[in-house]
Amino acid sequence: MRECKIEKNKTACNCTYEPCSRKGICCECIVYHQKSGEMPACYFPADVERTYDRSIERFIETCKRGRI
């Protein structure tokens, strides 16, 4: 198994939820949001991510508008 590059991952993470314990631990973030029926912050442009609406519906809407 490869070593997780948490600090490197954090530099690319656009999540604005500051108390997030999964920041930089992408595998945990994906599992967490999947269980909640959501997409992780990195799937959204910054202005959409800041709304905290990470629903799959919002992701599809954002894709249809050509934002991703």
- Average pLDDT, rounded to a whole number, is 94
Number of helices: 4
Q: Into which percentage range does the β-strand content fall?
A: under 5%
Q: Describe the sheet with the most strands.
A: none
How much helical structure, as a percent, in the residues? 40-55%
Shape from CA axes? globular
Concise account of the structure shown:
The protein is an all-alpha fold. Helices cover 44% and strands 0% of the residues. It has a domain of 31 residues.
Describe the structure.
By secondary structure, the protein is mainly alpha-helical. The protein has a domain at 38-68. Helix content is 44%, strand content 0%. The chain is built from four helices and no strands. The mean pLDDT is 94.
Describe the SSE topology.
Blueprint (H helix, E strand, L loop, with lengths): L5 H7 L13 H10 L10 H4 L6 H9 L4
Task: Record keyword descriptors for this entry.
68 residues; mainly alpha
